[in-house]
Write a structure and sequence with these properties.
Radius of gyration: 17 Å
Structural class: mainly alpha
Low-confidence stretches: 92-96
Largest sheet: none
Order of helices and strands: HHHHHHHHH
Strand content: under 5%
Number of domains: 1
Length: 193
């Protein structure tokens, strides 16, 4: 199998662009198409920059700060859980709580597109297949996530307001479960040392 695909497939699973779509719809619900496009561009650029910096310098920075992969997973999982809990319990419109100027960077770019799962996967792949292959596969996955998000208005049109809210709440519950899973895996890794 081509080295690119050996890098692409694990990162594709880690990014989970299709799984993020309901969360993206929830965070951008009611915004104009221009604002949504701006958010998509911001999220893709932010995710790419964070991923590339982490691939190049992450191992060294984490080592200097004495932060382990387990610590990183616990922190990222806790953040995802907090975001999802806030979304599930919120009765207010997202337009009142979402900062349109930064939502593309946080939480969509980081930690949703590029979070602890992607960064950890990238670190492991870099050791096996090299920096260039890992960077290329990461970039393709991030661009794919952006393209999936571009299709969000059409999908929202099919789901409607009620369907979109339902999918959004289900996605928040799944995101909470993913956050708990990351914390659990981080604790397991920490205890196995």
């Amino acid at each position: 199998m081509n080295v690119f695909w050996l890098c692409f497939i694990p990162l594709f699973v880690a990014v989970d662009a299709v799984g993020l779509l309901p969360i993206f719809i929830s965070l951008t619900r009611g915004l104009s198409l221009d604002k949504v496009r701006k958010i998509i561009i911001q999220s893709v650029i932010t995710a790419a920059i964070v991923a590339f910096v982490f691939i190049v310098a992450g191992k060294y920075v984490l080592g200097l700060l004495n932060i382990t992969v387990a610590d990183f997973m616990i922190a990222g999982g806790t953040l995802l859980f907090a975001i999802s809990l806030s979304d599930m319990l919120s009765m207010e419109s997202k337009l009142k709580t979402v900062d349109c100027d930064s939502v593309g960077a946080v939480p969509i770019g980081v930690p949703l597109i590029v979070g602890p799962a992607v960064l950890t996967t990238a670190l492991l792949l870099m050791g096996q297949y090299g920096t260039a292959n890992t960077m290329y596969a990461t970039f393709v996955n991030i661009v794919f996530a952006g393209l999936v998000f571009l299709a969000a208005p059409a999908i929202y049109g099919i789901l409607g307001k009620a369907g979109s809210k339902t999918v959004s709440k289900i996605a928040s519950l799944i995101l909470a479960a993913i956050g708990v899973m990351m914390v659990r895996k981080g604790i397991t890794i920490f205890l196995m040392k």
